Amino acid sequence: MNSSSEIQNQKLTSQLDLDLDFEFDQPSGKLRLRDLLDISPTLTEASGAIIDDSFTRCFKSNPPETWNWNVYLFPLWCLGVVIRYLFLFPARVLILTIGWIIFLSSYIPVHFLLKGHDKLRKKFERYLVELICSFFVASWTGVVKYHGPRPSRRPKQVFVANHTSMIDFIILEQMTAFAVIMQKHPGWVGLLQSTILESVGCIWFNRTEVKDREILTKKLRDHVQGAENNPLLIFPEGTCVNNNYTVMFKKGGAFELDCTVCPIAIKYNKIFVDAFWNSRKQSFTKHLLRLMTSWAVVCDVWYLEPQNIKPGETAIEFAERVRDIISVRAGLKKVPWDGLLKYSRPSPKHRELKQQSFSESMLRRLEEK
């Protein structure tokens, strides 16, 4: 902040201190600091966010505390590195390679030879997608505990889950062949999206194209009406969050389809590896390599009680109620931020102007009193 802004902030602070001192003698004559902060809930949340910077914390990986830099533990840590990189990693690569060989040798004939038998072809493709996802989980030595009844294929229902990494989809897919809503990706991930994953009804979008939103909404409505379609899975946060927080759920999609919403809570145990994927700093290939060179990926998945919109409840209120349920079950902290700000955060100059404007408006209010 420039010097003029600092001077204004100092004047504001001094004026508030004087008012607080004056309040002891004239309790009803001046504006109190408590009253100032109670102007609106938005102001209170913004003040707390400036201090705590909760938005930035949602998208940061918290490095583990250093424990190995002493003469007793360092040799054991070195031994662990040797085991993870020279023994576990090659074994996991072998497992994943075998999985791909089995998958492709089965998927290609099924996809092309059973084109006239759509129902049978979809059944086999669904099973094969679940199989390759199981091989992926095995390549991380995944220890996943599922709680609650396994999802079933029914019309007019949609599943929503908190989002930490693209592996959320893989972990859920190995149990049930979901049709997921996902951002388009480049590279080999994009190739899988446009070929194999489309066979289970997955729907892709590009958040930079406005026209995609209308097309996407129509596809979602058509999908949930089909009794034979795979269950629809949506990550309403719209971006990966570090599994300590939940950002605002988008009301579009799941909460405006006039159907039952089935919450899913996912919580990773960071004792062996942090499963958060920061797509702005790391490619998905590097993310997978980090998981494959860790000891294990440990997580819990809860299939929670289905929810319907209540009479008089708006889509935004419905989304917040479902977010409450997921946050409580997974032990996550709610923050009042839109996750898309991760991709379009305001510039430092814009934030400085807003802070200066805020200071000036507060000074004017004090002068009026």
Automatic annotation (TrEMBL):
TM region(s), chain numbering: 69-87, 93-114, 126-146
Residues annotated as domain Phospholipid/glycerol acyltransferase: 157-269
GO cellular component: endoplasmic reticulum; membrane
Signal sequence, renumbered to the chain: none
SMART domains linked to this entry: PlsC (SM00563)
Region (Disordered): 347-369
Places the protein is found: Membrane
Pathway: Lipid metabolism
Keywords: Acyltransferase, Lipid biosynthesis, Lipid metabolism, Membrane, Phospholipid biosynthesis, Phospholipid metabolism, Transferase, Transmembrane, Transmembrane helix
Gene Ontology biological process terms in this record: phospholipid biosynthetic process; triglyceride biosynthetic process
UniProt similarity note: Belongs to the 1-acyl-sn-glycerol-3-phosphate acyltransferase family.
Protein name (database record): Phospholipid/glycerol acyltransferase domain-containing protein
